[in-house]
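Good morning N.,

You mentioned wanting to compare the apo and holo forms, so I went ahead and generated the holo version with 5,6-dihydrouridine-5'-monophosphate. This is what I fed in:
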Amino acid sequence: MFDLKAHPHRRLNPLTREWVLVSPHRTARPWQGQVERLPATRPPEYDPGCYLCPGNPRAGGARNPDYRATFVFENDFAAMRPATPPGELRESGLLVAEAEPGICRVVCFSPRHDLTLARMSVEGVRTVVDTWADQWLELGDFEAIRYVQIFENRGGMMGASNPHPHGQIWANHRLPNEVRKEQESQSDYFEAKRSCLLCDYLKIERALGERLVCENAFFTALVPFWAVWPFEVLILAREHVTALDQAGGAMRDALAEIFKRVTCRYDNLFAAPFPYSSGFHQRPSDGEPHPEWHLHAHFFPPLLRSATVRKFMVGYELLGQPQRDITPEAAAGQLRAVQEEPLEGV
Ligand code: H2U
Ligand code: ZN
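and this is what came out, ligand included:
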């Protein structure tokens, strides 16, 4: 008898329509609760050498203002530029290139060099939520911009260049690959069923409960059935809103609250600050209503069993498909078991 808890199987991600191989038998042993904290060297509140701290010079000569809450600036090493001339290359359908105009910005979450979303107050994170929503609207209004990607890389393991709490926004003309896949699947589902893929998925998960991590009145955090990363989390709006502009004050407070709770749980799992890449997926900024889109945030953390054991996408995963040993159900259980308050000294 086929058993998801015991037998190798593959699971479908209905958002990307990609499969993940799940090998639950490889971790049939119970979790040892191993906690291997990295040395708690908390950074100073202000670092004179940091290019994101208030008042400090950045590369390229600009100087940061003496900001008191959030601070947004154009990336000095932007991956895309607004003034990119139109153009394309098409050679036999095999050499294909298209000019890609865009705008890249950096968002400092706080003037305090030593904070993280987990360590900031909910009010402080609410200011970040407002900044994200304002930037999403402002960048989406540009003629050339059709998608605004808000994201955060946290920790050197995920390639973040600096511990100062910050994220980035890349806004550009065409849908990035991951967004295009989610656009197509949500749109096809909406056409076929006249209902929203993620609203329907959330109903199933809330009824089953085994993959839930935590929730409040407006958001649910869960480990998706199709998770690839060991402690991957999906934060879903509980009402059908297509983007941050449709979130009112109470919903924005709740978003700040759930971000703090999820990142605290991460920090309390193995390592503070727990590394991850996270970001929102929401409706494209092309002026269409996109009723099929459901606002959500993904968290992709690389850690597997401890602060030092990480997951790499190598070998079979690069050449075949992603694979995981610890099941999403087990990962959700571990995330539910850790406390939500920041630990002393973390
Ligand atoms: P990451 O930590 O996710 O790499 O983001 C930091 C960004 O900050 C990075 O994209 C930019 C880098 O280009 N940056 C500046 O714009 N100015 C600077 O003085 C240094 C870094
Ligand atoms: Zn700093």
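The radius of gyration is 21 Å.

Happy to go through it together on a call whenever suits you.

Best,
F.
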